[in-house]
Amino acid sequence: HVQLVESGGGSVQAGGSLRLSCAARGYTYDTYCMGWFRLAPGKQREGVATIAQGRGSAVYADSVRGRFTISRDNAKNTVDLQMSSLKPEDSAMYYCAADTRPRCWLSNPENFGYSGQGTQVTVS
């Protein structure tokens, strides 16, 4: 049973930083690609970043490239999202996601097979 638990959300002023973390349980972690997507009120889900299995090649949405960094620790079964230079438009519920399909890290994380309950990020 795959479980993903996010943490690290909160409120921050524009230009600030936050680090989100996701703890994964219930599966062979390093065989899954991981990702983050977000959902803001009145908007569609938006993929933020994905990271491949193993060495972890990463893909970013244009809206966050250069400001956000996704990373994974296969020994700790965690995936983090370091967010810098935050903007009010980054405010959303952020969800961790996992999938095992081939080349899933090239796909939209909002369509991954598993996701967590989310953590709120508010930028003012």
Mind explaining what this structure looks like?
It is a single chain. This protein is mainly β and 124 residues long. 0% of the residues lie in helices and 48% in strands. The protein is built from no helices and eleven strands. Strands 2, 4, 5, 6, 9, 10 and 11 form a seven-stranded mixed sheet that branches. It is globular, with a radius of gyration of 13 Å. The termini are far apart. The mean pLDDT is 94.
Structure described in brief:
With 124 residues, the chain is an all-beta fold.
Task: Using brief descriptors, characterize the structure shown.
about 120 residues, mainly beta, seven-stranded mixed beta sheet, four-stranded antiparallel beta sheet
